[in-house]
Amino acid sequence: MTRRPVLVLALVLASGAAQARGIEWNQLSPEERSVLGGAKPRWGELAPEQQQRLRDGAKRWQELTPEQKERTKQGINRWRELPPEQQEAVKQRRNWYRELPDDRKQELRDTWQRLPEERKQEFGGGAKGSRGGRKGR
Q1: Which residue pairs from 62-65 have beta carbons closer than 8 angstroms and sit at least 24 positions apart in sequence?
Q2: Domain ranges for the chain
Q3: What is the pLDDT of residues 44-80, one digit of tens each?
């Protein structure tokens, strides 16, 4: 009877140690490696949490439609073209938004949806820049 708790404890500790080491590159599926190929040279240097976030992102990427992938690529390219000061301002606004209560986030999303397209364009949004489907982020 005492062997079972010891075995369970050993498994839990082994699992924790594996988490602390992170994810080995060869543990990723071929699809995940394809999506994350740019990270391969520094994969082993990333924190386990960052590896998991990237892996989760790769899985989400695989579920996107071709249109969603294209919009995402365009957004990434727009981000890369921003000067560092603007990138920092965007990061600060994103962090501010993430700290809001869910009901306030919903109010802001609803307000955005009610804006005329011309007004959204003034903010760099609108139909082309709309990020539909990202609720709760």
Answers
A1: 62/31, 62/35
A2: 91-124
A3: 999 999 999 999 999 999 999 999 999 999 999 999 9
Q: Are 35 and 58 in contact (CB under 8 A)?
A: yes
Confidence check: pLDDT of 6 > 80? no
Per-position DSSP letters for 66-104, written without gaps between them? HHHHHHHHHHHHHHHHS-HHHHHHHHHHHHHHHHS-HHH
Among 15-19, 29-33, 64-68, 85-89, the range scoring the smallest mean pLDDT is: 15-19
Joined together, the tokens standing for residue 122 give 């003034």
pLDDT at position 134 over 50? no
Nearest to 116 by CA among 128, 104, 127, 103: 127
Under 8 Å between Cβ of 44 and 25: yes
34-65: b or e for each residue (b if 16 or more CB lie within 10 Å)?
Answer: ebbeebeeebeeeeeeebeebbeebeebeeee
Q: Could you tell me if residue 28 is left (phi over 0), alpha (psi between -120 and 50 degrees) or otherwise beta?
A: beta
